[in-house]
Write a structure and sequence with these properties.
Number of helices: 3
Structural class: alpha+beta
Number of strands: 12
Helix content: 25-40%
Shape: elongated
Mean pLDDT: 79
Distance between the termini: 77 Å
Strand content: 25-35%
Order of helices and strands: HEEHEHEEEEEEEEE
Strand order of the largest sheet: 3-8-9-10-11-12-4-5-6-7
Number of domains: 2
CATH architecture of the largest domain: Beta Barrel
Low-confidence stretches: 61-69, 78-85
Largest sheet: 10 strands, mixed
CATH topology of the largest domain: Lipocalin
């Protein structure tokens, strides 16, 4: 074996061993950082995130999940939204999305559904536009057109990086109620008039 191969193999072996040694330390660093960001404290003995109360733990779970910030339901009553993974395109799509919207046996009046809707009629813009071909998220940084499935009253919206599910409770000329799966109660929208 020539000298260059021995050096390359030795360096490669050292890099692999360094990676095996460093990975647990790097992994723990990110877990500790995430725990502290959620308002918890890291227990180095048990290697777990601890919270003072069950309520804090529950709150951290809500904000940490992929659907934690539910912009469509706006349970946190935010009046302005920041750019986040919930209202901007990722560089790569990581879920399987249908090529087009599919509506099957709707139990809601789609002529009333296909309108522009908002949580706050006095706000600067609408929240979304239901179209026969797409669910268009207004003020979305990227392509706001999302394909969706409407099967009877069951609604599934396909973002690039997550899937949003809910049930259309009712729709009338100027009011739409959707009970999103991760919400405790239905969210009421009004038709955007501006």
């Amino acid at each position: 074996m020539n000298r260059n191969r021995v050096i390359i193999l030795t360096i490669g072996l050292l890099l692999i061993l360094t990676g095996i040694w460093a990975y647990p330390k790097i992994d723990q660093f990110f877990k500790v950082d995430s725990c502290l960001d959620k308002g918890g404290r890291w227990n180095y003995e048990t290697k777990e995130c601890e919270f003072d109360s069950e309520e804090e733990f529950s709150d951290s779970q809500k904000t940490d999940s992929l659907n934690g910030y539910n912009q469509l339901a706006d349970e946190q009553n935010r009046k302005t939204y920041t750019i986040s993974e919930y209202n901007t395109d990722l560089e790569s799509k990581n879920i399987d999305r249908p090529d087009k919207t599919i509506i099957t046996n709707p139990t809601v009046d789609t002529t009333e559904l296909f309108r522009i809707w908002t949580l706050d009629p006095d706000g600067p813009h609408a929240d979304f536009w239901f179209k026969p071909t797409e669910f268009y998220v207004v003020d979305y940084d990227g392509d706001g057109a999302m394909p969706y499935l409407l099967n009877q009253d069951s609604l599934t919206i396909f973002y690039n990086d997550f899937i949003k599910k809910g049930k259309v409770v009712s729709v009338s000329k100027d009011t739409l109620k959707i009970h999103w799966d991760d919400s405790e109660r239905p969210t009421q929208y009004v038709e955007w008039k501006n």
